[in-house]
Amino acid sequence: MRAFIGVILAMGLIQIKGKARGYWSQRCPLIRLEGIAEVFPRDRFHNILRYLHFVDESRAPLRTVPDPDSFYKVRLLLDALLPKFRSLYSPSRELCVDESIIKTKDHFRSRDVVRNKPVKLGLKACVLCEAKTGYILNLTLAGGGEQPKKGLKNSSVVQNICRPYHGMGYQLFMDHSYTSFELLKKLGALSWTACGAVSPNHGAPTVFMKKNSQDLCALKRGDAMFQCRDGVVACAWRDAKLVTVLSTLPVGTEMTHVNRTPRAAHKYQRGATVNCPVVVAEYNRFMGRVDLVDQRISAYRRHMKGLLWPHKVFWYFLDIAVINCYLLYVASLSQGRAKLKPREFREKLAVELVGGNSFCKRLPPRLPSEELRFNRQLEHAPQRVATASRCAVHLQRCETIYACRACGVRMCPDPCFYLFHFKADYVYDD
């Protein structure tokens, strides 16, 4: 199984569109990969892929059960990997939550369409990662049995995914898909400080938007407006467009500067600075690591057709595990030591997993022709070799450490050497 996973990683390094059979193609030798073909026969690889399951189907939940787990086929995989991710790494204070899409076109009731993502069709996952490095700590698949019932907001999803870090004083950053006034109050009761962008038309406090609607429209670039309620600060800042943020970070109404290149009279002004609230600057600094993880995964995505959604989830978790391993490797390096690039790390990991194994049946060496066997001008003589191998003359299995110097065929000195070089029918039944 280790060699199988190593081959899967190698397929991500050398991407072939279409079906996986292209890696063993005999019709087009230019795209055939000898390295993969030497490790795994094509049929053996597809048989493992065909029977790769992560649950006993006889224990599948009945459809009559209320709120069945839609992801029971990969639930054991999630329960095994996610606690391992958290146990191997202690994150820094800043964490972020965002959604990721596992690409699949399989007909599945939990499949979503997200038009503002590079991958628009697939399974939606809510991902919690460290905001500085992008190390994945926890995730949940949308539509599973652990999801909240209909009518509840995404705040329940965020609270569930952050549960292992409740009461530890972490900071959480999220986008408008999850941010709400009620969620920030609930997280504050659990010793979290949070910050998230909200849409002015959806998610922003209604009192704040209606009460200050005229003042918001009058804001110029770099101007900001704040309002505090129950410990939650609502901030509206005018950049190229209006930006609205809810926050419980201990920065209050502090301001800072950001660099911008505003366009005036069809020319860009270089070196311009714009006033910016610290809460917005912190949000821009620590948000977006999940998108970076998606970018890293897409760089080594396997373009295989015809796979079911459990296989796609397995590929996704395999890529996440490799990314987390690389981040652990970088964190373990001492100062001044050169580190491997992500592609070089994947290459070494794939080679280590294969471990020099080969599951291809090797054909026996072709025996020399009669002209070579009976040619007396050649130096036919027994020669001792370092390792023992099967005698080519014995009918029974017999190991020998001798071979013919001219023919290169393994055989016993007596009587196999004489029979092979003087008899047309040389098989010896001992």
UniProtKB/TrEMBL annotation:
<protein>
    <recommendedName>
        <fullName>Tyrosinase copper-binding domain-containing protein</fullName>
    </recommendedName>
</protein>
<keyword id="KW-0472">Membrane</keyword>
<keyword id="KW-0812">Transmembrane</keyword>
<dbReference type="InterPro" id="IPR029526">
    <property type="entry name" value="PGBD"/>
</dbReference>
<keyword id="KW-1133">Transmembrane helix</keyword>
<dbReference type="Pfam" id="PF13843">
    <property type="entry name" value="DDE_Tnp_1_7"/>
</dbReference>
<dbReference type="InterPro" id="IPR002227">
    <property type="entry name" value="Tyrosinase_Cu-bd"/>
</dbReference>
<dbReference type="GO" id="GO:0016491">
    <property type="term" value="F:oxidoreductase activity"/>
</dbReference>
<feature type="transmembrane region" description="Helical">
    <location>
        <begin position="313"/>
        <end position="333"/>
    </location>
</feature>
<feature type="domain" description="Tyrosinase copper-binding">
    <location>
        <begin position="414"/>
        <end position="425"/>
    </location>
</feature>
